[in-house]
């Protein structure tokens, strides 16, 4: 199990950013036995539980989106995200046109500079309103 967890963790660590961290850095963090096992368990629990939605596509169903349409929503998505492809953010925005879709020139990681900047900008706008 540890070998599979480490492979999973290192794969995600090496694909999450458009400009990947050094291989040594990825190995040190994502290849750490305890980190890799915890990371793989959490992700697998999330996937097996379908993101805790009733079924695939649940969030895109009109009756479910109608419950949140009144909430100001900004979707920040990395154009080069291979973990959660940009098509999923586009599908959500198309079904929820009241939302704002911001595409960044990044990958998946919330630690990439442009994603951080766009999330902070959106949060600051909400704070002012």
Pick out its properties.
mainly alpha; 129 residues; globular; two-stranded parallel sheet; 2 domains
Task: Give the SSE map.
Blueprint: H1 2-15, H2 23-30, H3 33-48, H4 62-65, E1 74-78, H5 86-95, E2 100-104, H6 113-128
Parallel strand pairs: 1-2
Description of the molecule:
This protein is mainly alpha-helical and 129 residues long. The protein folds into 2 domains: 2-51, no CATH class; 55-128, no CATH class. It is built from 6 helices and 2 strands. It has a two-stranded parallel sheet with strand order 1-2. It is globular and about 45 Å long. It starts with a helix and ends with a helix. The mean pLDDT is 94.
What would a concise description of this structure say?
Helices cover 53% and strands 8% of the residues.
Mean pLDDT: 94
Helix share bin: 40-55%
Low-confidence stretches: none
Largest sheet: 2 strands, parallel
Shape type: globular
Distance between the termini: 49 Å
Number of helical segments with 4 or more residues: 6
Question: How many β-strands, per DSSP?
Answer: 2
**Count of discrete domains:** 2
Secondary-structure class: mainly alpha
Strand order across the largest sheet: 1-2
